[in-house]
Amino acid sequence: MRPSGRELNEMRAVSIETDVTKHAEGSCMIRMGDTHVLCTASLEARVPPFIKGSGLGWVTAEYGMLPRSTSTRMRREAQAGKQGGRTVEIQRLIGRSLRAGVDRVALGERQITVDCDVIQADGGTRCASITGGWVALRLAVNKLMKAGDIVTDPLISPVAAVSCGIYAGQPVLDLDYPEDSEAGVDGNFILRGDGQLIEVQMSAEGATFSRDQMGQLMDLADKGVGELIALQQAAVA
Amino acid sequence: MRPSGRELNEMRAVSIETDVTKHAEGSCMIRMGDTHVLCTASLEARVPPFIKGSGLGWVTAEYGMLPRSTSTRMRREAQAGKQGGRTVEIQRLIGRSLRAGVDRVALGERQITVDCDVIQADGGTRCASITGGWVALRLAVNKLMKAGDIVTDPLISPVAAVSCGIYAGQPVLDLDYPEDSEAGVDGNFILRGDGQLIEVQMSAEGATFSRDQMGQLMDLADKGVGELIALQQAAVA
Amino acid sequence: MRPSGRELNEMRAVSIETDVTKHAEGSCMIRMGDTHVLCTASLEARVPPFIKGSGLGWVTAEYGMLPRSTSTRMRREAQAGKQGGRTVEIQRLIGRSLRAGVDRVALGERQITVDCDVIQADGGTRCASITGGWVALRLAVNKLMKAGDIVTDPLISPVAAVSCGIYAGQPVLDLDYPEDSEAGVDGNFILRGDGQLIEVQMSAEGATFSRDQMGQLMDLADKGVGELIALQQAAVA
Amino acid sequence: MRPSGRELNEMRAVSIETDVTKHAEGSCMIRMGDTHVLCTASLEARVPPFIKGSGLGWVTAEYGMLPRSTSTRMRREAQAGKQGGRTVEIQRLIGRSLRAGVDRVALGERQITVDCDVIQADGGTRCASITGGWVALRLAVNKLMKAGDIVTDPLISPVAAVSCGIYAGQPVLDLDYPEDSEAGVDGNFILRGDGQLIEVQMSAEGATFSRDQMGQLMDLADKGVGELIALQQAAVA
Amino acid sequence: MRPSGRELNEMRAVSIETDVTKHAEGSCMIRMGDTHVLCTASLEARVPPFIKGSGLGWVTAEYGMLPRSTSTRMRREAQAGKQGGRTVEIQRLIGRSLRAGVDRVALGERQITVDCDVIQADGGTRCASITGGWVALRLAVNKLMKAGDIVTDPLISPVAAVSCGIYAGQPVLDLDYPEDSEAGVDGNFILRGDGQLIEVQMSAEGATFSRDQMGQLMDLADKGVGELIALQQAAVA
Amino acid sequence: MRPSGRELNEMRAVSIETDVTKHAEGSCMIRMGDTHVLCTASLEARVPPFIKGSGLGWVTAEYGMLPRSTSTRMRREAQAGKQGGRTVEIQRLIGRSLRAGVDRVALGERQITVDCDVIQADGGTRCASITGGWVALRLAVNKLMKAGDIVTDPLISPVAAVSCGIYAGQPVLDLDYPEDSEAGVDGNFILRGDGQLIEVQMSAEGATFSRDQMGQLMDLADKGVGELIALQQAAVA
Predict the structure, then answer these.
(1) Residue F67 lies inside a defined structural domain of this protein
(2) What is the ipTM of this complex?
(3) Per the annotation, where are the binding residues of A for phosphate?
């Protein structure tokens, strides 16, 4: 029934390839089906002004799509002169989600910027960015710990995300683009490795939804995130 | 236990004053405690390019805060040369939420822009904007129907929103600013008059949350939105 | 003969409501007929770089119109990405006018920003902004003096403004929008409480004008500003 | 008593050199003492959208200063990414003033853009721009008339401008930069050849002013503009 | 003697992987040593306004670097709100170079946009972009020809580019980043498959250069471009 | 054969008038035929952040065209909100070229900004800017040396530039606009007084070129720059 032939609760094939660029402190290419996102974590000396001198660290994120990551070419945001509303919304979500898994005291007064650049898009880019972004962050923090710059691990728990939605009246896991563009309800679920919730965003897109349906989507998300966290752990092992 | 002395499930005093500006097709000033938002609905001939000729209507929203609506003065966004990420995120949410209550075929090829300008802020401005924005929209649509420009009512159901969160370990309804700035979990719930969900956004802010807690916040939101919808109905009667 | 039925030298009904927002150090809503402007005065620690260390204070102003303060919706300047030429011109005028009534030595090295936001427009918004802006400024300075932060009153004299013009061949006081859009000559007169002039701006808009007519408009302005200053004094008493 | 040794009612040496660039339909270099402004008038096919199809013409102006026209280098506005408030204010004044001398019906549906670029600044650049701008406009219109594109002369009367102010307590004509930066009161007077007023702008800069002083400055302006108009006529003869 | 141990006239290992994204009409990843650039060619219906209706086609290019393609993180241009001078210069060069190999009549009134996004940088990104960009362009044109949309091949000859410079006093081929940052003279040579020159840019960076040295660099470039064109041909075969 | 009737290897009439503005530390108006560029050199205390504290000086350039320097009016870049790609490319070239003639140690930690503003354009504005810019720079440095602020002359050698191209199949020196817009190959050659090359840029514009043709253009450039340097020397003597 799904365009891809997947089961309702079946994820796309996911792979996480680490250390894909030589410059970044941490990096990976995450592929969720045909959605490919390059995630890098950059360690930076400067922290934002509002925490200068506080001893606390900061994790932030930026998001972008290559102009031809999509089926028709999008205008390059650098050319347009500003990041669009959707981009801003997504990068704020990625940053907020990753910070929820970080002990900022243990990180110390340093900043890690996670860049998530979509090389090829087929739905679910924000979730792939969070899941891959955490891997890049983990690798960068590992480097800091190995070097002895940090003693206590500032990463409390892995963070991963998956989208679920109601497609053709059925709750389905990990929407691809053909599903996403038709889904009546669309949700993004960000969880930690211990099953705690970090962020939930559900939107009616044509159809509204009930609390029962919320529960069904949450069940799917639990399953999906569980699988993603296993893949993250394998990737950074 | 709450700074305001309210019960855990008690809303702030809410009032909705209609027809507050002489130019707009629909308008109201909504006051949720010390949060005051001026909402206007403007009927416009032009529709966005992507629906030109489709026969469908469009409802969109813009959001702004007066520079001194907050306890310390904020930089004016027109001065800064762009709308900040938070503004963009909020106005997209308002527009999406209001559209979920609109039959765009019945509206016909016209656009209604709902402007939500925060005169005074004390937490919950995006929820007040949605609730007040719907009242402005209702009044503007009434005018269209009275004039015979529209035959079928395009407003399917009222739309209202409330924030809930976990403050000092307890689920509380309708966060004010002192609570919002301390809450470990913060959620915005947008519902229709028939109890269906339109949008749910829950974020960990320091603390994560469980599915049980999600349910408790949803219960509070149900109660709060019920009260708001009664007030909306009274206001537009 | 005037669209409103007013005498040639008759002002619109004017009211000044003070302390209308809980956050600002000084605030008022000034209503000149259907023109309503919210004025707030914000005390700020920072002064502009060019007076840092000089011991002198600074008073500046910003001006904005809500998108639907006008009869057809205007584009939001924050959305457009810049303040328009008219906005820039008006806010420079407001700041310059208010500064002309301030002893910057007595104010000391602090800045007061006066925000004038037009809630509803019906002509004469810049004059209403100056007159209401001075009230907000007065209230903020009162607070500083009460707290003992300032010893000598830095406000030399009240500052108020009124527009006059030649409408249908006759000099008239306090143009409303229907008059303003038809007037052949349009002037803004900013005076101090002692009758001294601070700024005069007269523009031909279709018709030119003679020195005699300048005198007639000045006479009207004297009368109008006298009334406004009495209202300011009553408001801040 | 004046830094330059001039009489109180004495203008600086003024010259107007015409046809200084080969491309523009009309052009001149106006020199008022050490203030040198290059003025060009460009005939353009397009008119602004708000008059399309009206049969009316449009005259507009733009103003700029070369970065090193001033005693210390100013930031290039194209580099800064926007025109400053002062620039916007000035170019709106120039356009408005020139239009006051134009019969837009006789001009027909075409636009003339007058560019005023300050090559060297020593006070009074906006007045020099208006006076020189009118010469460029006159020359461009002459070309149109010679070509038979226009039958009735659309230029009703010459337009010229001069600044006057109160310097060291005395009313003086045509302020140069050392006077301008010290003047307590500063005014710009734009008149037509028939002595009618087009625009008057007087500002207190430290000192306020009385109606008597307004009259004295007006007297000086009458004298100065009379001289300028004679020079304009000679230049375009 | 070269940091990499290469011979003076030895290129880095070069590979060109085609069809790397599923959406673009043509694409490749070109790797010149550690410089990796993703090139996509997008066929677009619209042509720039200046050739509308001319029957001529257009090829243009855009260039970007991922924020962490470099050894320290660069600011994202979309965030900064504009493309930097270097970016603009490079993308103009790529577009100009590719157009020099295109018969715009044969292409017909359609536009192909070549996006060159640097995934990892180690010197020579503009040359890699041109060489890889031509491959993407070739593949996109092949698709058009296969579909019968174009009859005559609009690609006259392959286009490839290489950098040469004077490093440690010696002319060397294909500078990598350690060489580029130290080179006294730096040149980019763009040639066609028939040996004709399209663009030559040589810059003194510390040292100047003689005509003899120009000749030596040209010799190296001939050799390098010859090798690149062989690789292009193999890639698109 | 050339539109102007010049010989193939004949420059336009060139003049360099120095000290044309009273404010700049160095200035000239360079006229190459109908191309007129005003060049000023401004001494500034601040150096760019990346050399603060290094003891090294900096020379940079900015370029602009007056809106009606061209045959049809161009949009003012300050109005457009950004410098176009061509402007950015040119000003980077001017700065780079001038720096190649400067001993930055001898200059000491100060910045000289060379502004090149095109008053009238007829082809070759970038070359005229470099040639005239060097004269302005020379005069500013002379002032510093006379004042004893600099002991060793930081100007190693004069820098001048000329364009050459292939027009109607023939190599010609110093293209004017009619030639430039038709030329199949267009080159800019920047040399020092000792004959050393600083920058060479050759572009195919329709026709490609061979190494032989490169040599012919270089020969013309040698001749032209020799003449320009003699004029520079005369001007600053």
Answers:
(1) yes
(2) 0.95
(3) 86, 124-126
